[in-house]
Amino acid sequence: MSTDPAVAPQAQAGSSRVLRPKRVEDYDPQRLGLPKPPGFIRTFFRRNPWIIDAVLMGLFYYASIGSVISSATGSVPIAVVLFSAILSLGTTAAILFRRFVPRILAGVSSVLLLAIFPGNTGSSVGIIAMAIALYALAVYRSARSAWLWTIIGTIAATLGALSAGLLDVGVGLVAFLGYGMMFVIATLIGISVGNRVRYMDAVFARAAQLARERDQQAQLATASERARIAREMHDIVAHSLTVMIALADGATRAATSDPDRAKDAMAHVSEIGRTSLTDMRRVLGVLTEASGDGSGDGSSGGAVPLAPQPTFDELRPLIDSYRAAGLPITLTVSGAVPEDSATQLTVFRVVQEALTNALRYARTPSRVEVSVDFTAPSLTEVTVRDDGLEAAADSPPVSVGSGRGLIGMRERVALYGGTVEAGPTEPRGWRVAARIPTAAHPSDRSSPDESAPQ
């Protein structure tokens, strides 16, 4: 649930807070995907409420000053006239801030209704002020608060009328019914308008929340796609460059002692480089060209034809490339290979990343064991273990990894509900173990196989 202030219209009735800290006009309908609200004049005044408040204040000030002047021309004492004038000015100021402090306006109006005496016409402006206050309470506070002040205002107006009528019961009854009816009408109008405004605020707040969630979902999808692309790019670049560097180093050392072997190593470097460049162009082509328009068929200039992702059948050529780079790899496959291409791709990438790390960081390993176990009906287990030594303090520095390979491996396996464990082993070496749930039933096209390093 969002905690944005826009959702504040859901506040409980009777709360002392303003129910609508963010109004309908504060939202951008175009950004929310909503049509433009009708009514230019209504929209203008909703965006500029101070204009209405200023007009109401001016009209009330004119009426209250007229009441004070009419009282001053009679036989009313000057002190009473000044008191009435002060109340009128206070009520006028409260009208200007009726949206923020409607209770103060209601309280001042109640006092103005009580200040009735023979020759004073202040009750008329007091009724107007109280009606404005009740409307503001119903719209900007709550219906309960408006009804409470309706009762208080009716009692105050009735007591004022009784005081002016020298405690005449008939005057009091007429005043109670008349004032009560006017105040009830003002309250009902305010409740109707307030409910509509609160409903519209809630609708716009919900629309704003949905728009934020939509944007967040788009950002999450973009981040997920970027992570997937980063994994694919890392799988291509890290594997290829690691093998090419190992072959180039071996060719450099054998250049004088065994030129033919060095020549073969450089041929492998050239072959791996061309294959990696093709894979890179293919990935970039998928990213930059629209899908489904035939752009990946190789007909356009410089385009690379699309190809399926690696499967389990390509695992042995991958291992052969690492053997050529100097890793003594033993591959053991148990069980039937599942038909699920996603599982096959995950197994391929896990073995590729584990062998890349072994080639980069393991010193003089005498054995690298790759075990792929498909015997469990719904689980594939991949284990890559080497017995290489850690780099000595006086040894040449190895390339420093960013950890992205292990992170990508874990993310890839986690997509299928699997786990990856990686860490050192005793007495030496490194072990990577992945457990991948198998979604599809295994096929019978592959049988247990074991190949030794060549």
Report what the structure shows.
With 454 residues, this protein is α+β, with helices and mostly antiparallel strands. The chain has two domains: 5-214, no CATH class; 313-389 and 401-454, 2-Layer Sandwich (Heat Shock Protein 90). It is 59% helix and 8% strand. It is built from twelve helices and six strands. It has helices at residues 29-32, 40-47, 49-72, 78-96, 102-114, 122-140, 143-164, 169-254, 259-288, 315-324, 341-361, 404-414, and strands at residues 329-334, 368-373, 379-386, 419-424, 430-437, 449-451. Helix 11 packs antiparallel against helix 12 (404-414). It is rod-shaped. The chain starts with 28 loop residues before the first helix and ends with a strand. Mean pLDDT is 76; it is low at 1-21, 290-301 and 440-454.
Outline the fold blueprint.
Layout: H1 29-32, H2 40-47, H3 49-72, H4 78-96, H5 102-114, H6 122-140, H7 143-164, H8 169-254, H9 259-288, H10 315-324, E1 329-334, H11 341-361, E2 368-373, E3 379-386, H12 404-414, E4 419-424, E5 430-437, E6 449-451
Parallel strand pairs: 1-2
Antiparallel strand pairs: 1-6, 2-3, 3-5, 4-5
Helix pairs in contact: 3-4, 3-6, 4-5, 4-6, 5-6, 5-7, 6-7, 6-8, 7-8, 8-9, 8-11, 8-12, 10-11, 11-12
Q: Count the beta strands.
A: 6
Distance between the termini: 61 Å
Total number of helices:
12
Q: Compute the number of structural domains.
A: 2
**Average pLDDT over all residues:** 76
Q: Spatial order of the strands in the main sheet? A: 4-5-3-2-1-6
Uncertain segments: 1-21, 290-301, 440-454
Structural class: alpha+beta
**Percent range for helical residues?**
55-70%
Content of β-strand:
5-15%
In this structure, how is the largest beta sheet organized? 6 strands, mixed
> What is the helix/strand order?
HHHHHHHHHHEHEEHEEE
Please tell me how large the radius of gyration is: 42 Å
Using the alpha-carbon principal axes, give the shape: rod-shaped
